[in-house]
Amino acid sequence: MQDEESLVRRAQKQDQEAFAQIYEEYFDKIYRYITLKIGDAVEAEDLTQQVFLNSLRSISSFRWKGRPFSAWLYRIAHNQVVDYLRKKKKMTVPLDEKLASADDNPQLATERKLDVEQVLVAARHLTDAQREAISLRFTSELSIAQVAEVMGKSQGAVKALQHSGIVALRRALTVKQNE
User: Fold this and answer.
1) Which of 4, 40, 44, 122 has the greatest number of C-beta atoms within 10 Å?
2) Whole-angstrom distance, CA of residue 8 vs CA of residue 3
3) pTM for this one?
4) CATH number of 18's domain
């Protein structure tokens, strides 16, 4: 992706090609983040589209303050998820199996689906902040600094959340395997 700042500045001047590049660069990451948060692939796609519609409408108000543009996008995504969950009043929905099966091998697809389901069940034992930090770090592939920016926390706090979340996941998965 070309220099992010110049790309965003072009998009702020209504350059459709620039916004299309931003969309291409971030769509999958935002989609994975939302899917992990709500557990519904179809709804996640709709919410991701809404994130980009909202960002298109308000990109002119974006200001560079030493933060990456992606932090702004993830904040919009986070707000979309919060609004969605408020309306649904449900925190967990089964993960669509299409997300877990990327190949045609039914055995591998089934094993992968079981692994994903186990992780989702184990993730219920995490705090909301731990889930958010792990989701941003590993599903959306953000750096510690970017996660801190999105969550409005210090990098140390994000590292602590990530560590305690992974320990809790490992413990929950170990207990599940021993059953």
Assistant:
1) 44
2) 9
3) 0.61
4) 1.10.1740.10
